[in-house]
Amino acid sequence: MASKLWQLQSKACQASQFVAKHGNSYYRQLLDQNKEYIQEPPTIEKCQLLAKQLFYTRLASISGRTESFWKELDYVKNLWKNRQELKVEDAGIAALFGLECFAWFCAGEIVGRGFTFTGYHV
User: Fold this and answer.
1) What family is this (predicted)?
2) How many whole angstroms separate alpha carbon 33 and alpha carbon 86?
3) pTM recorded for the entire structure
């Protein structure tokens, strides 16, 4: 156990030395590559302004997304009315979508229970 701890400590030391040696150049390179996204002056006030702009822009986009949702729902209703003319491809896509929704539900349940499958904590 002590040898594993020593190995882990050695790896952590090597990683911190690598970051200390190359971290600053990586940081500068990253900023240079993405300077079109940097707002001047880079202040806390500018960050707060951008956060508010993002929040209210997303809030304003809800009406457009709601409209798209209702169009999609009308499309599904129309497909259901004319299900006799439904193609195998459309039925397969619908089945895969239903399976994906079920899988996400199951994953959410597992995460909600603390990553246990039975619901009991050991």
Assistant:
1) Belongs to the ATPase g subunit family.
2) 49
3) 0.46
Distance of CA 32 to the CA centre of its chain: 26
The structure tokens listed for 110 are: 């597992």
Helix (H) or strand (E) holding 62: helix 62-81
Q: Which residue has the tokens 């499309």?
A: 75
CB within 8 A of 110, min separation 6: which ones? 116, 117
**Tens place of pLDDT for every residue, the chain, 122 residues?**
677 888 888 888 888 888 888 889 989 999 999 999 998 888 999 999 999 999 999 999 999 999 999 999 998 898 888 888 888 888 898 899 999 999 999 989 888 888 776 655 55
